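Q: How do we represent a protein-ligand complex in a form that can be generated token by token?
A: Start from the inputs.
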Amino acid sequence: MSDTLTRRHEVIEPRWWTGSPAVDPSRYRIDCSEFVMDADDLRPDGELATRMRTTFRDVGLVHLTNTGLVEHSDMRAFAKLVVDAEMPYRAGANPRDVLEPNVYEVGAPLQAWLHYHHEMAYVGTSTKMVAFLCKRELPGRGATFVSDNVRATDALLETEFGQKLAELGVCYRRDLTDREAFTDREPIGVYNHWQHSLGTHDPDVAARRAAEKGLQVSWGDDRLLRTRYYASAFEYFPQLDRNLLFSSVADHSMWFDTWPLVEQLPPEQRPLWMTFGDDTDFTADELRQFVDVYDRFGSPIDWRVGDVGVICNFRFAHGRPSIVLGHDEERELGVLLGEPFERWGSVDGKW
Ligand SMILES: [Fe+2]
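Then emit the structure tokens for the protein with fe (ii) ion bound:
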């Protein structure tokens, strides 16, 4: 590791947006109060399904409001009018608890802010879209933010940093802890045990599965499984026939700046680290630019119970501020992943 790792880093809190939405909500919001939201509205050739798919194709985002739905299973059925092939969370991804079949928990503590990110950018198999289903609302403070990634990509490519990212790519380093090393130890620094992430208790099987995911593997002290994945910082998006930004600081150690039981650790001891693809570190200024470029094109989606949001993983990044619940307050979203795809990275001449 380079000596810059031991330097205390600056904590960068995202601004999320400029204060006015980068994308006019009328372009992607569908008020469902004019629909009955019964089996008839679930017809794939029905009016609602057609509007949802057209909106998603044109904007990369659909937000159903006033649905009157309260159960995840019902919201999922409407999300699936756009999400046609679901993906289960699998080896190498973050652990998620299943709320019901194919609906997962968001899998992050509410008090941690979640930097803008593209879902599963850090492994070889990602997803084309992600859907959120709102079960418990926190109006005004529980919004998810989405950032217009086409504009963020253009803005970043105008900078020296963006050009460097395009040229060098990135390296994702993830340290997976051993569950058995923490049986009677406070889980400080634990993000993801390899047993949970890779679905096995056998270290050889774990290493093999990680390697099958395209990760370089080595073992540290206490059976710490250390993985590296080299990838483009961009991804070619066929529909627009161009490369789009597909990386963010969410896979950097700063992901944990507000994460309970990890935030107190110095960057070099945190479970994630991210560098350029030549293993050199980002400068503080580059990290700031990385956060800013998404913030400049952000829009909030302020969930109400029953809302369904489907987000194209290429055209938008998503994230959210930290949330502190007051007495009697709740905020719960379910997550649905769309069709998986094997990352192919950027394509020459498609900038
Ligand atoms: Fe996410």
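Helices lie at 47-59, 72-79, 149-157, 160-168, 194-198, 203-212, 284-295. The two ends are 32 Å apart (CA to CA).
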